[in-house]
Amino acid sequence: MTAGRSLFKSKGGMALLDPDLLLRAYSIGVFPMSDSRDAKDVFWVEPRRRAIIPLDAFRMARSLRKTIRSGRFQVTRDTAFAAVLRHCADREETWINADIEASFNHLHGLGHAHSIECWEGKELVGGLYGVKLGGAFFGESMFSLRSDASKVALAWLVARLIVGGFGLLDCQFMTEHLRSLGATEIPQTDYVSILGSALSAGSVKGAEFGALDRLLAGVGASGGGTAPGCVIAQLLGQTS
Fold first, then answer.
1. What distance in Å separates the CA atoms of residue 9 and residue 13, rounded to the nearest whole number?
2. Is residue 7 part of a domain?
3. Comparing C-alpha atoms, which of 65, 66, 28 is closest to residue 50?
4. pLDDT tens-digit profile of 114-148?
C-alpha cells in the first residue's frame, strides 16, 4: 500500500504518518491504529464489519433532546482539537499512540481533521474528532467528563453533516453506546460502496463542514432569539 514510500515523515523531531497516504487509506476504507498509548508500531485496519450512523436515522432520546435544547453545554468546533484528541487518548486502554496523535494534529492543521467540543464555562467536558474527506466523515474517538457531553457532541456533528450535505458518518467499530444512538453494522463490501458514493457526491456537490455555522449565524441575525440547541434539536427531530 505504501508503493515504495515511507509510512512516516519527520517534522520537528516527531514521526508523522504521511498525510497523503493517510487520506488515501481512508478513501478505501482503511484506518490506522496502535496497540496502546506507549506502543511504537502503527498498523492498518480494515474491519470485516463496519459501524455507521445513517444520518437520517440518528436516535435522540427525550432526555438528550432536552439537554440539547437547554444549552447546558456550549458547543464549538475546531477550537480545541489537540485537547480533544489528548482527552480521547488519555485512557487506560487506547489505540492512540504518540505517532497517531501527532499525525492527526498535523492533519487538522492541513484542514482535513475536525473536532466538536462541549464546554461548561471554560472547562472542556466532552467532544469528538474525526477526518473529513469529500462527503464522508470518519469519526475517530470521543470522550465525556459530564453526563451526555459526548452524546451532545455527536448530535451536533450529525446536524452539521446533514446541513453540509454529507453522505456518510463512519464509526468504525460497533459499541452498545453507538447502537443506542442509531448506529448500524454493515459488511465491509457494503461500506466501501457507500463510501465511494459519499466521496463522489461530496466532490461534485461540495459537502461543507462549515455550512451549519452559516445557518446558525443566520438564525441569530434574524433577531428571533432562537437558541442554537433548539435549532439542532429541530434538525434532528426531522430524522429521529
1. 10
2. no
3. 28
4. 999 999 999 999 999 999 999 999 999 999 999 99
**In-domain check, residue 4:** no
Give pLDDT, residue 228.
Answer: 93
Check if the beta carbon of residue 125 is closer than 8 Å to that of residue 85: no
Asked if residues 114 and 24 have their Cβ atoms less than 8 Å apart, the reply is no
The domain spanning residue 184 has which CATH number? 3.40.630.70
50 vs 137: CA distance, rounded Å: 14
pTM of the model: 0.91
**pLDDT for 199:** 95
Tell me which amino acid residue 217 is.
A
Instruction: Let me know if residue 144 belongs to a domain.
Output: yes
- In 57-146, DSSP assigns E strands to 74-77, 113-120, 123-133, 136-144
Q: Domain total for the chain?
A: 1
